[in-house]
Amino acid sequence: MYARSTTIMGEPGRLDDGIAYVRDDVLPTVTAMDGCLGLSMLIDRDTGQCIVTSSWDSEEAMQASNLHLAPMRMRGGQIMGGPPEVDEWEVAVMHRDHPAPEGSCCRVTWMRLNHHDIDRGIDLYRAAMLPEMESIDGFCSASLLVNRTLGRACNTTTYDSRAALDASRERSWTIRDAGVRDAGVDVLDVAELDLALAHLRLPELV
């Protein structure tokens, strides 16, 4: 399975217009395409950051969709007030304890490998980090996306509420710090965002 994420650093006051556009125009268009497994949208109302991620059952389906979706990405950037930046990923791990309810929040961590054995990092995430994250109160789901060509990875963990996200922070940092040290990766950035649209229907992949 594969995923394409579009990140827009927009204007906070224009996020609601962006949510409406993605919900009413982008979501039905994307989910009608062959091979699409769904779409999610994360937002930060303080900074204006928005991340829209679509999932696909094959790399071929993801690439075939690009011609039709590129104009929609540009339109989304115009609406939200920032240029879209696109990343493409392989879905390495997907685990869902239960569907995310309204009001759920996510912690997204971007990482860079400092070696060439990406499968070792995936195995460590699956065997050691994921069980620890799942034991945290309020845990909904976690995913690990990788780009083997660029040597990058993205971990998203979803919690039932902002309160659960806040309460998880210290323990999550402990788990992350131990994991990245053992896996040989560098953390590039971390963001905590609201889950505005939850239609990313990736099946279990552990």
From TrEMBL:
<dbReference type="InterPro" id="IPR011008">
    <property type="entry name" value="Dimeric_a/b-barrel"/>
</dbReference>
<keyword id="KW-0560">Oxidoreductase</keyword>
<dbReference type="InterPro" id="IPR007138">
    <property type="entry name" value="ABM_dom"/>
</dbReference>
<protein>
    <submittedName>
        <fullName>Antibiotic biosynthesis monooxygenase</fullName>
    </submittedName>
</protein>
<keyword id="KW-0503">Monooxygenase</keyword>
<dbReference type="Pfam" id="PF03992">
    <property type="entry name" value="ABM"/>
</dbReference>
<dbReference type="GO" id="GO:0004497">
    <property type="term" value="F:monooxygenase activity"/>
</dbReference>
<feature type="domain" description="ABM">
    <location>
        <begin position="1"/>
        <end position="65"/>
    </location>
</feature>
